[in-house]
Please model this.
Amino acid sequence: MLPYGRQSISAQDIEAVADVMRGDWLTTGPFVAAFEDAIGRLSGGHHAVSATSGTAALHMAYAAAGIGHGDEVITTPMTFIATASGASMLGAKVRFADVDEDTALINPAAVSALATERTRVIAAVDYAGQPADYDTLNEIAAAVGALTLADAAHSIGGSFQGRPVGSLADLTTFSFFPTKNLTTGEGGALVAKDALLAQRAHEFHFIGLVRDPTRFQIRDEGPWHQEVQEFGLNYRLTDIASALGLAQLTRLSDFKRRRAEITSMYNDLLSSVEGVITPAQREGADPVWHLYPLRVLDDRRREVFERMRADGIGVQVNYMPVYWHPVYANAGYRRGMCPNAEAFYKQELSLPIFPDLSDAQVERVVESLTRALR
Model:
């Protein structure tokens, strides 16, 4: 089965991990600090905190923002559930704003219609790898005193009008799952423009531990002292994972280039194929194409999915609208609230895309798709 995504691991990646395993640190050590510094520099020079997953990074972001009961978070339904669930688990009410019908990126007008004085965070998703409209979202957030959050699980290494992903919103989260643009095995990171938000995220992911003596509330202990002032979790990344991440970062530009080549090849080969719509690209966006989200028309998505899977092509669907999941449906969320997202989901089919995908394999995917559409 040709997968829809696959990690690219080199001999240098393996040696980087092996070097760490020969050393003194396996968990949180110098490679974690170096990896966080590299992610921060890639993101415009802001503060970075690594994490065990992209889901953990989102939980950290909402915790750092102080999300709790009575707060509202506006986000998109066209995403993996973790974009919303981190806020829900902290007690917030999640409100879903519809997406643009061509890009599946959150629609700022839909966000504006939902924003109130109770809105604490507006969370967008860089669907398929291209940044959302953060300039407009930042204006909406500022008007109600909210923060913006970029779920950039798909878009590390991308930019908008020359500004890197990681610098476009108040908070940005990344995922380093194997199918993402670079991998640490499992892993993620949070980037914050504000130092206090970064500190809060760091302490939350470090079990809540405070180690700064100037902030201690208990002042009669010895030099070993550390204390917890707010609850946190152990979301710490390891030196082993960070070494892999640092090695992968050296090839991120090559990954980006190859993903763009594959996308362009798909676009060309599918330009004359009837019954499908190829992905749209925002003006000003320089995406890292994490997904190739084809749209299959005439209610044929499932048929095409099953035929291509039977043909050995591991197509995927990204994503079912978040509020369709029983955990939200059982809480009173109803289908129909975001018609563009639901229409996009009904048609979306992710074709294989990863750096090691060959031109011949791209042609094989298109041939399989063409047969499935007959």
